[in-house]
Specification:
Blueprint: E1 3-9, E2 13-20, E3 25-32, H1 38-56, E4 66-70, E5 73-75, E6 80-83, H2 94-102, E7 107-111, H3 112-124, E8 131-137, E9 141-147, E10 150-152, E11 165-168, E12 174-177, H4 178-182, H5 184-195, H6 202-210, H7 217-237, E13 242-246, H8 248-251, H9 256-267, E14 279-281, H10 288-299
Parallel strand pairs: 1-4, 4-7, 8-13, 13-14
Antiparallel strand pairs: 1-2, 2-3, 5-6, 8-9, 9-10, 11-12
Helix pairs in contact: 3-10, 7-9
Length: 300
């Protein structure tokens, strides 16, 4: 059985996993990130890889290659992490550094959302001629599009759903960027301002909503309507055959799926509503990034 290492790099943690060619997650390790310095951050990546190899009793010689998901903008051909808003890696040559560290020739890098989308596309068994969209809702909001088996990248910045404008009631019925109005930090801020309660986490907000606390209903109505507006743009511009949600905010609250469907249906005309039957929440959850990164090694 062929194996690869998938790495999912974030501002708070780094996950490294051994992935089989069929997409099975065999072993996984997580370490804390250290974004205080570019070299310290890289040393944590190395630590994660070394730990997962030790845990699996494998050597680097047993590995086909390494796939790496990095936030922000990357140069896939040159293997450079160009820009991230949560890491100190501007123009960081991640591929060359990993090759130097581990002696592995086959290294694939991409944006972390694209890596997660690839795993979801594989898991969804989408037909080769269909259009697939992966939407992540977490501390940010973004999406990735796979059409006819290939990523749609545009000029390099396609899929930034969080930048799209929506009409926010909470902002006084004015246009606001979706991410600013309805990502995790925005939900916490909205709850604090609406209920005059400090220290509420996104998890607290959803837990109390699902527990039946009526004070939280308007907050969830606002947030899910904002999501639906963004999704309606996707529905209109791309008309995907299938859409999968990931990211901690929605993956940890699967009961929101039906709410979002109802909100989206209010915007769609009947000819667009086929999408409602083909929207789902990831079964891979927080592992989709490392699984996708590992699987991309076998596609290289």
């Amino acid at each position: 059985m062929k194996k690869a290492i998938g790495i999912d790099i974030g501002g708070t943690k780094i996950a490294a996993s051994i992935i089989s060619e069929s997409g099975e997650l065999l072993h996984s390790k997580k370490v804390k990130s250290d974004p205080s310095d570019r070299e310290k951050m890289f040393s944590r990546v190395v630590e994660a890889v070394e730990q997962v190899l030790e845990d699996s009793a494998l050597s680097i010689a047993d590995i086909e290659g390494i796939g790496v998901g990095v936030p922000g903008k990357v140069d896939r051909e040159k293997g450079i992490a160009i820009f991230q808003n949560n890491l100190p890696w501007a123009q960081f040559p991640i591929t060359a550094r990993l090759q130097e560290q581990f002696g592995v020739e086959r290294i694939t890098i991409d944006n972390d959302v694209y890596m997660a989308a690839f795993a979801e596309w594989k898991a969804a068994k989408v037909k080769q001629d269909e259009t697939f969209v992966y939407v992540t809702i977490s501390t940010g909001i973004s999406c990735s599009i796979i059409h006819n088996g290939s990523f749609f990248r545009g000029a390099g910045f396609a899929g930034e759903l969080g930048l799209s404008p929506i009409l926010s009631n909470a902002a006084g019925r004015k246009l606001e960027r979706l991410e600013k109005a309805a990502a995790g930090p925005a939900i916490e801020k909205l709850a604090a301002e609406t209920l005059k309660v400090a220290g509420l986490s996104t998890k607290d907000v959803f837990n109390r909503y699902f527990a039946g606390d009526e004070e939280y209903q308007p907050i969830i109505d606002e947030v899910t309507d904002n999501w639906a507006q963004g999704l309606y743009s996707v529905s209109c511009l791309i008309d995907p055959h299938k859409l999968v949600f990931g990211g901690s905010v929605i993956a940890n609250n699967p009961g929101l799926l039906e709410v979002v469907k109802e909100k989206l249906k209010n915007y769609q005309i009947p000819e667009q509503q086929h999408l409602l039957d083909h929207m789902s929440i990831s079964n891979l959850k927080q592992d989709n990034g490392v699984i996708g990164a590992g699987l991309r090694v076998f596609e290289a």
